[in-house]
Design a protein that fits this description.
By secondary structure, the chain is an alpha+beta fold. Helix content is 38%, strand content 19%. The chain folds into 6 domains: 59 residues, Helix Hairpins (Orthogonal Bundle); 238 residues, DNA ligase/mRNA capping enzyme (D-amino Acid Aminotransferase, Chain A, domain 1, 2-Layer Sandwich); 79 residues, OB fold (Dihydrolipoamide Acetyltransferase, E2P) (Beta Barrel); 72 residues, Orthogonal Bundle (DNA polymerase, domain 1), CATH 1.10.150; 83 residues, DNA polymerase, domain 1; 78 residues, Rossmann fold. The structure holds 2-(butylsulfanyl)adenosine. The site of 2-(butylsulfanyl)adenosine has 14 residues, from β3, β8 and β11.
Length: 668
């Protein structure tokens, strides 16, 4: 039996790690329910043993999502969180506590609890001035530029008697449809998919490139209004008015006058929420009158006038039959659990993701185990726990699951890099799945746009006609017409589309050749910085990482790639066949080295060109973009409403602030 001290230690360590997984990596390995359970356990122990308090315990510090690339802003009103419960009895306790404390009639507003990332929108004179993330509750990141791209956040409010200063609090969400599309794209790039729409939303909000943000179709849902001169004394009425000003306030909120009505709302939405376009994880219950809210007050963490009732994630229990390992085109290995089919939220589940070796070990999985599968905000269900008691009686219990040590496809010994959770098959040149995967990637529409499907690639590979994408350019009509089910027309079409791909731009070719971590955008950045493949293949680590958005991981992957003689030969063969390995003359004509060695920080909004256009001009003319002001900054290209923190810092460091006219003059 562990001592209380040891238990507290262990819980703190676990919760710190889970906080890190969630906030920093955006890759949680346990469900919110399990997280809350651990947190509850720790809270209880800390209450029982006050002498074991620790100022750094996860119970006193809610994870912070502050990242370095945005100005930090103090919240005018702190962003508190809510007391959570999974129990209806505790909702009743809350209701009765409020009743006892107020000693007068009161009304309750029930709302959906949106499962995204919270935002504070500041409107001055009806104009959107600033959007700030929750951060640590007292200070958050200024993500105004990104939030401006969200279509249902009004830039100007419409209506009468809009207070001078207003804060609207709400949730930024990614609808299921956009989430699925983004993950599909990430999987194509062999980037880890987002675990759920919430992580995708918070990750997106922190992107440095607001064009990408705009393309992801985030949405806002407003649930609170703050300020000194609010239109009414009722939370419900204020939200209704906010809706009339153009803010996206859900029409699902309901004013209730009894506890029964509250439960009716809970039960209705527990089922109906599955038909909503966005994820919700519970119900928020609030006292309607702002005066009553003020009288009830706050504890150090939560308002006493509100509570969140959280829905249990849907779970099922089933048997683990086996674990399979899949190989991707870059050799990354993904473990997948094969399950005895089980019904979960209306679909039959046969497989679940197992993420990586650490996730498998932390579950102590055995073949034959009865496992809990859960579908929270995720599309692919995951295994959250093992029924240990069932194991003792089980006659079907097999071996402990140990991560594969050889590639299921080619038998090569797998490797795992230090600091990485994933395993890789290192046999990039001999592993059939990787070879075929690279060819499949090469021909995709966004890459070389060659019209050939995976089945035909398989066939050509099996017949020994292609062993890499360069072999496509050697195919002859007589090779193809004799193949099973191939006629002259389909053979000619393929050859034509291969021929056409020779005019695909260098940027896209760089993406097509399938260097690990080099997706579309990175390829474009690289092509502009190194306008032909010779320059790129000779670039040093320092030269590579000095390009915007190219970090250590991408640079090392490029160095690896170009140090492999097989890949160098591959590129030589493509070049020989006429594939483009340098930027077009037109593009080069628009480039110069006028900004060589200069680092710029762009801030604010502009009239003549977009922010992205300015970024591109800086890159094309040899300059560097940076997200934050530091001693290394040479110029700040300032537009309208530049962040005050940036300006202050620039003045302190003596950095030159220029406007767009002055910048364009530098280039002329
Ligand atoms: S009210 C002081 N209402 O849940 C009260 N929050 O656990 C502040 N959330 O940080 C929150 N839907 O991000 C409120 N209808 C809703 C909500 C909601 C989602 C989030 C919000 C907050 C967290 C609290």
């Amino acid at each position: 039996m562990k001592s209380a001290e040891e238990k507290i230690e262990l819980l703190r360590k676990q919760l710190h790690q889970h906080n890190y997984n969630y906030y920093v990596l955006s890759q949680p390995v346990i469900s919110d329910y399990e997280f809350d359970k651990l947190m509850h356990e720790l809270l209880e122990l800390e209450e029982q043993y006050p002498n074991l308090q620790d100022p750094n315990s996860p119970t006193v510090r809610v994870g912070s999502d502050i990242s370095n690339d945005f100005d930090q802003i103090s919240h005018h009103y702190p962003m508190l969180s809510l007391q959570n419960t999974y129990s209806e009895a505790e909702v009743a306790d809350f209701y009765n506590r409020v009743k006892k404390s107020l000693k007068e009639d009161f009304e309750i507003v029930c709302e959906l609890k949106y499962d995204g990332t919270s935002i504070s929108l500041i409107y001055e004179e009806g104009k959107l001035k600033r959007a700030v993330t929750r951060g640590d509750g007292r200070r958050g990141d200024d993500v105004t530029q990104n939030v401006r791209t969200i279509r249902n956040v009004p830039l100007l409010l419409k209506g009468e008697n809009i207070p001078e200063y207003l804060e609207l609090r709400g949730e930024i969400l990614l609808p299921w449809s956009s989430f699925d599309a983004i993950n599909k794209e990430r999987e194509e790039q062999e980037e880890a998919p987002f675990a759920n729409p919430r992580n995708a939303a918070s990750g997106t909000l922190k992107l440095l490139n607001s064009r990408v943000v705009a393309s992801r179709r985030l949405e806002s849902y407003i649930y609170n209004m703050l300020g000194e001169e609010l239109p009414t004394n009722s939370h419900y009425d204020n939200l209704t008015i906010a809706r009339s000003w153009g803010l996206n306030v859900s029409d699902t909120l309901k004013r209730c006058t009894s506890l029964d009505e509250v439960f009716e709302f809970i039960n209705y939405w527990n089922l109906e929420r599955k038909n909503l376009p966005v994820t919700t994880d519970g119900i928020v219950i609030k006292v309607d009158s702002l005066i009553q809210q003020r009288n009830l007050g706050n504890t150090s963490k939560f308002p006493r006038w509100s509570i969140a009732y959280k829905f249990n994630a849907e779970q099922a229990i089933t048997r683990l039959e086996s674990v399979a390992y899949q190989v991707g085109r870059t050799g990354a290995i993904t473990p997948v659990a094969n399950l005895e089919p089980v019904l979960l939220s209306g679909t039959t589940v046969r497989r679940a993701s197992l993420y990586n070796e650490d996730a498998i070990n932390s579950l102590d999985l055995h073949i034959g185990d009865m496992v809990y599968v859960e579908k929270g905000g995720e599309i692919i269900p995951k295994i959250t726990a093992v029924d240990i008691d069932a194991r003792e009686q089980s006659l079907m219990l097999g071996d402990k699951v140990r991560f594969a040590n050889i590639c299921p496809d080619c038998g090569a010994k797998l490797i795992r890099n230090e600091d990485e959770a994933a395993h890789y098959c290192p046999n990039s040149e001999g592993c059939p799945t990787q070879i075929k995967g690279r060819i499949e990637h090469f021909v995709t529409r966004k890459a070389m746009n060659i019209t050939i499907g995976p089945e035909s690639i398989n066939l050509l590979f099996d017949k020994g006609l292609i062993n890499d994408a360069a072999d496509l350019y050697q195919l002859k009509l007589e090779d193809l017409v004799n193949l099973d089910r191939w006629g002259e027309t389909s053979a000619k079409n393929l050859l034509q589309s291969i021929e056409k791909s020779k005019s695909v731009s260098y940027e896209r070719v760089l993406h097509a050749i399938g260097i690990r971590y080099v997706g579309e955008t990175v390829a474009q950045k690289l092509a502009h910085a190194f306008p032909n493949i010779e320059l790129l293949s000779k670039a040093t680590f320092e030269q590579l990482t000095s390009v915007e958005e190219i970090g250590d991981r991408i640079a090392n992957s490029l160095l690896d790639y170009f140090s492999n003689t097989k890949f160098k030969e591959f590129i030589d063969r493509l070049k020989m066949h006429g594939v483009q390995f340098e930027l077009s003359d037109d593009l080069i004509a628009s480039m110069s080295d006028k900004l060589e060695g200069m680092t710029f920080v762009i801030s604010g909004t502009f009239n003549l060109h977009s922010r992205d256009e300015y970024k591109e001009m800086i890159l094309k003319n040899g300059g560097k973009n940076s997200g934050s002001v530091s001693k290394k900054t040479d110029f700040i290209l300032a537009g309208n409403n530049m962040g005050p923190t940036k300006l202050e810092k620039a003045n302190k460091l003596g950095i030159k602030v220029i406007d767009e006219i002055a910048f364009l003059e530098m280039l002329s």
